Fold:
Amino acid sequence: SSIPRITTVGVSFSNMNNIIPTGSGGYTSGIAGTITGWNIITDANANVTISIEKDGNNIVGSGNAPYINNGIVNTENVSGWTDTVLTNSSVLKFGVVNNNNATLIVVKLFIRIN
Structure:
């Protein structure tokens, strides 16, 4: 048996000129694998809603941040997601749908590499 290799991909949104960040960013994954979990970290107790798309299709409706408790980041499972498989050419788009307090938002996906 082989030991699974796990890597992370993600995006960071930070304030520009003291503006609370919203918007989106995307890139080609360059990784073939399966998303096994995800998390959101913020710099404040914030109400943040995230959307994640792959190849134009929503793979998670939304998540609320922060997924952090006493300095420990909780990894959320992806069992309800409609699509967790990445190819080298998959295009991921991370969006901040709602943000009422955070000036820094980090979203990570944990990928089991094929």
About this structure: The chain has a mean pLDDT of 77. The radius of gyration is 14 Å.
